[in-house]
């Protein structure tokens, strides 16, 4: 809770009560208490701790804290504006906070509006005020709407239900990221938000066209402050039409080239048309695009220091959807205009995301993960490719391959952050009966750990290489992609309008505060859980700093690929342990900042459950949370549970 030296305790309590009433949490708690009381014969039997536990379980405390944090932050922002002489800094603050002011979360007074306009004019910058007023005809969510209505009828309390599907609107423009508040999935979603986007020098070419409608978004756009000079509508439309005509010409030329390439490819060997070749894929707007166009180099800064950090960062993004296990390259294709069925067409069941969509949604399929990691590897100067093949137990799969100067491949599993140097059988030993040298046997044994089976093609933003060797087994493939008798190249030159480069933004949230709050909430949940079993809880304040060091070492290992970092925690823990005491500890890694979900995952671990509900004499628990933020505010959350006790069994 944030303390203010200028306010009395009574004022703070009053503000908290107002926030509880405003958010509807107070009403929800009253209904919850009434329901608990009605279920008991004697009201005096109701334990206050039971009510508090239920408040945490339903996430009401998290909701209250989040609302309070936002209100305090926006009041601080207005104070900064009123006392600041830095106009550039002021305009950046406005860009961050305009959403909260304009979306109805905070009342806008005329003085606040005057202050905003004055600050913007002083900065000399132009901003695009984007006001979202609602949505219509989101037909994909008709079923979600009926389900939400069913849930709402069952749960009349004004609380968030984890069973209700939500729609979230993301706005992506250059280095700006905005996220609207979640709304219930409906055919006509009730989006209400305002964003202020620093557009700098506005150019109509700064984004791709949207050709497929997933719904109608009611948006009001305006420039603030209003510019004195304006571009005529006819001039703007001429530029757009000219760009569209040029794009169509380039598309026809590329399709003609692909048809010739495909004919040559399937003539080499009859089974080639059964291999997992993708020349085109549907994007999130159901537009068929060359797969090479999904990969693009990304503007890097210090937020990702090495390719190993990039691999771990991508693995932190949740994996979406069931992967297609069909390994045939021609079954299930949709005929594209001007392309015969099976010529690297698009599977109807698959949709790939652009790198921008994967970044802003912070999730994607295995192909999306591989495309993003390959894009990052290219930005580090590596010779990187998306690999399409199969994996044991997964069916068709995608991963990232980087090639050394000697064409030696390193495989990167983009969904886990793992990597290894892959070795193929030496050419002289393929099909031979003589034994392999032990050194080569050991290298080949590593391949089996990662379960990659076949490789059909690899591609990046400039070229695609199709495997035309007799075998597609990763253990026997020759990775010399410059050898045209083993790999068939398809060059791709993206001559479309040059867009602004995608840049990953450094973490901006106060993760230290979030970590401390999460630690506090987890301690409360553990205390309440033990109390339900008539167990007391005492906390050990000595170990947590050393537990933090251990968690940092774990993160350092997975994010850098290092495995030789010495762990001193066990030595420190045992040294601090009095004679006759036992000690247990367990660590977790997660991406959720919801304490209840994190605690639930701990209860599902037998070792952690044993630590939480340990019985004995002089039991003391220790708990430490460490959050390691990555670009786009993607967190790697680690927490450690430990206890010391004298066993009585």
Describe this structure in words.
This protein has 649 residues and is an alpha+beta fold. The chain folds into four domains: 52 residues, no CATH class; 81 residues, no CATH class; 238 residues, no CATH class; 137 residues, 3-Layer(aba) Sandwich (Pathogenesis-related Protein p14a). It is 38% helix and 20% strand. The chain is built from 17 helices and 23 strands. The strands form eight sheets. A seven-stranded antiparallel beta sheet has the order 16-15-14-13-17-18-19, with helices on both faces. Strands 6-1-7 form a three-stranded antiparallel beta sheet. A three-stranded antiparallel beta sheet has the order 21-23-22, with helices on both faces. The two termini are 42 Å apart.
State the main characteristics.
single chain; 649 residues; alpha+beta; 4 domains; three-stranded antiparallel β-sheet; 17 helices; 20% strand; globular; disordered N terminus; CEPT76/DRC7_peptidase-like_dom; Centrosomal protein of 76 kDa; CEP76-C2
How do the strands and helices of this protein lay out in sequence?
Layout: H1 9-23, H2 25-38, H3 48-57, H4 60-83, H5 87-102, H6 110-123, E1 127-136, H7 142-154, E2 166-167, E3 170-173, E4 176-179, E5 183-184, E6 193-198, E7 216-224, H8 233-268, E8 280-282, E9 288-290, E10 298-299, H9 307-315, E11 333-334, E12 346-347, H10 355-361, H11 366-379, E13 383-391, E14 395-403, E15 409-412, E16 419-421, H12 438-450, E17 452-459, E18 463-467, E19 487-491, E20 502-503, H13 511-532, H14 544-560, H15 569-576, E21 582-590, H16 595-603, H17 606-612, E22 617-630, E23 634-646
Parallel strand pairs: 10-20
Antiparallel strand pairs: 1-6, 1-7, 2-5, 3-4, 8-9, 11-12, 13-14, 13-17, 14-15, 15-16, 17-18, 18-19, 21-23, 22-23
Domain Centrosomal protein of 76 kDa C-terminal: 515-645
Domain CEP76 C2: 123-201
Protein name: Centrosomal protein of 76 kDa
């Amino acid at each position: 809770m944030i303390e203010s030296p200028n306010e009395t305790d009574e004022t703070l309590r009053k503000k908290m009560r107002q926030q509880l009433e405003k958010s509807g949490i107070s009403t929800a708690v009253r209904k919850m208490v009434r329901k608990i009381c009605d279920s008991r014969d004697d009201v005096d039997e109701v334990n206050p701790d039971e009510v508090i536990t239920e408040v945490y379980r339903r996430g009401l405390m998290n909701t209250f804290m989040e609302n309070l944090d936002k209100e305090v932050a926006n009041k601080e922002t207005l104070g900064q504006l009123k006392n600041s002489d830095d106009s550039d800094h002021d305009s950046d603050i406005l860009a961050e906070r305009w959403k909260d002011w304009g979306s109805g979360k905070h009342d806008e007074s005329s003085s606040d509006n005057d202050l905003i306009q004055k600050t913007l004019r002083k900065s000399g910058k132009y901003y695009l005020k984007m006001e979202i007023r609602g949505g219509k005809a989101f037909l994909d969510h008709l079923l979600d709407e009926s389900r939400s209505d069913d849930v709402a009828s069952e749960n009349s309390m004004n609380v968030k239900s984890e069973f209700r599907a939500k729609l979230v609107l993301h706005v992506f423009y250059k280095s700006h990221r905005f996220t609207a508040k979640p709304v219930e999935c409906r055919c006509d979603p009730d989006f209400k938000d305002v964003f202020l986007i620093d557009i700098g020098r506005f150019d109509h070419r700064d984004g791709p066209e949207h050709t497929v409608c997933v719904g109608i978004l009611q948006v009001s756009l305006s420039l603030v402050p209003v510019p004195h000079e304006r571009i005529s509508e006819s001039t703007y439309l001429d530029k757009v039409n000219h760009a569209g005509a040029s794009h169509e010409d380039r598309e026809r030329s590329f399709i003609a080239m692909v048809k010739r390439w495909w004919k040559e490819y399937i003539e080499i060997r009859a089974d080639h048309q059964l291999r997992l070749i993708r020349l085109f894929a549907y994007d999130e707007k159901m537009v068929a695009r060359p797969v090479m166009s999904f990969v693009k180099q990304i503007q890097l800064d210090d937020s990702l220091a090495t390719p190993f950090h990039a691999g771990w960062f991508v693995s932190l993004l949740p994996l979406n959807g069931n992967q297609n296990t069909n390994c045939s390259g021609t079954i299930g294709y949709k005929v594209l205009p001007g392309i015969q069925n099976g010529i690297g067409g698009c599977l109807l069941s698959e949709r790939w995301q652009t790198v921008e969509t994967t970044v802003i949604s912070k999730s994607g399929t295995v192909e999306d993960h591989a495309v993003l990691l390959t894009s990052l590897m290219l930005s580090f100067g590596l010779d990187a490719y998306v690999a399409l093949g199969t994996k044991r137990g997964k069916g068709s799969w995608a991963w990232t391959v980087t090639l050394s100067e000697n064409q030696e491949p390193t495989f990167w599993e983009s969904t886990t952050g793992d990597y290894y140097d892959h070795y193929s059988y030496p050419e002289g030993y393929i099909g031979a009966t003589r034994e392999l040298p032990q050194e080569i046997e050991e290298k080949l044994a590593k391949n089996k750990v990662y379960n990659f089976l076949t490789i059909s093609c690899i591609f990046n933003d400039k070229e695609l290489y199709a495997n035309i060797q007799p075998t597609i087994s990763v253990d026997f493939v020759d990775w010399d992609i410059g050898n045209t008798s083993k790999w068939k190249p398809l060059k791709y030159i993206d001559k479309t309008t040059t867009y602004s480069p995608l840049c990953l933004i450094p973490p901006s949230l106060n993760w230290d505060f979030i970590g401390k709050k999460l630690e506090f909430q987890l301690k409360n949940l553990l205390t309440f859980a033990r109390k339900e079993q008539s167990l007391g809880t005492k906390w050990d304040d000595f170990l947590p700093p050393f537990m933090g060091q251990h968690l940092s070492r774990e993160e350092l290992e997975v994010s850098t690929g290092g495995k030789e970092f010495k762990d001193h925690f066990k030595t420190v823990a045992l040294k601090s342990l009095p004679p006759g005491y036992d000690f247990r500890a367990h660590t977790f890694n997660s991406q959720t900042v919801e304490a209840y979900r994190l605690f639930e995952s701990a209860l599902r671990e037998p070792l952690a459950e044993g630590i939480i509900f340990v019985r004995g004499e002089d039991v003391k628990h220790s708990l430490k949370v460490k959050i390691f933020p990555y670009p786009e505010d993607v967190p790697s959350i680690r927490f450690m549970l430990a206890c010391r006790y004298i066993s009585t069994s």
